[in-house]
Amino acid sequence: MSRLVTQLTVAAAAAGALAAAAALPASATSGVAFGTIQYDSPGKDTRSNASLNAEWVTVVNRAGKPLDLNGWTLSDSSRHTYRFHLKLGAGKSVRVHTGTGRDTASDVYWGSRAYVWNNDRDTATLKDARGRVVATKSWR
């Protein structure tokens, strides 16, 4: 009978561990997080492409393996949405600029002709390709 109790205890512990892992936010399992966010473009807000591109969000892959971000989204409180089309290397980061430009491995461009991030308050939300929230970062 003690063997049965031990097996049941092990099974219950395994089920509890699985439930706890399922309850973790996706960022805890994916290793993706926000780095620095420059939501207030320095200087006067001229709406020039240079000024728009001085507003950006950094996404960091803290995992030990590359991650496919294809279909992931970055959005603000007003639901302006950028869709990723890239793979992010292990330990690498990518900066998402608001304006237009030529995408590289470390910098991508939203293509917006207007500022996305509110200077006084906003929330950046990163979702995976299934629409699950991976990370959020707010400011006031």
Automatic annotation (TrEMBL):
Cross-referenced InterPro entries: Lamin_tail_dom, Lamin_tail_dom_sf
Gene3D superfamilies: Lamin Tail domain (2.60.40.1260)
Domain of life: Bacteria
One Pfam family per UniProt: LTD
Coiled-coil intervals, chain numbering: none
Domain LTD: 20-140
Alphabetical list of PROSITE patterns matching this protein: LTD
Signal peptide start and end residues: 1-28
Chain ranges passing through the membrane: none
Alphabetical UniProt keywords: Signal
Protein name in UniProt: Lamin tail domain-containing protein
Annotated source species: Streptomyces abikoensis
